[in-house]
Amino acid sequence: MKQQKLMEKLSLWQLAVLLFTFEIGSVAVVGVGNDLRQDAWIAVAISTLLGAGIVSFYIMLLKRAPGKNLFELMTISFGKWLGKGIGLLYVFYFFYIAERVLRDFCELITTVIFENTPIEIISITMMGVIAYMIYLGLEVFGRTGEIFIPYVFTFTILIGFATFFSGEMDFKNLLPVMAEGSGPIIQHIFPRLLTFPFGELITFMVIIPYVTQFNKAGKVSVITVLVSGMIIIYGTVIEIVTLGTEQLERTVFPLLSAARYISLLEFIERVDLVVVFIVMFGIITKVSVFFFAGLKGLEHITNISYRYMVLPMATIISYGTILISDNFAEHIEEGIRFIPHYMHVPFQFILPALFAPLLFWRTKKQKRGSDTNGSK
Amino acid sequence: MGLSDFLFKRRKNKKGDSTPEEEIFQNENISKEYFKSLDKNKRSLHELFKQTFDFSCDDIRLGESEACVCYLGTMLNIHSLTDKVLNVPRETSVSKNPKNIEEIRDRYFPTMAFEYADTFHKVVWHILNGFAVIMVDGQEKALSLEIGDTEKRAITEPSTQTIIRGPKEAFTEDINTNISLIRKRIKNPYLIFEDFYIGGDTKTTVAIGYVSTITNEDILNEVRERIEKIEIGAVLDSGNIEEMIVDKSFTPFPLVFNTERPDSICSHLLEGKVALIVDGSPFVLAVPSVFTDFFQSSEDYYQPFLMPSFIRIIRYMSFMIALVLPSLYVALSTFHQELMPTQLLISIQAQREGVPFPAVIEIFMMELTFEIMREAGVRMPRAVGQTVSIVGALVIGQAAVEAGLVSSVLVIIVAFTAIASFVSPIYSFSIATRLLRFVLILFAAVFGLYGVLLFLIIMVIHLVSLRSFGVPYLASVAPFKLTDQDDVFLRLPAWANKRRPSYLFPKSPVKEKKKQKPSPPHVQGGKK
Amino acid sequence: MVTFVYLVMYIGMLVLISLIDMFIWKQSFFQVILRLFTLDEGTNEWLIGGTVFIGFICSIVIDYRLRKNKGQKQL
Question: Among the CATH numbers 3.30.1490.20, 2.40.50.140, 3.30.565.10, 1.20.1740.10, which is that of A8-343?
Answer without folding.
Answer: 1.20.1740.10
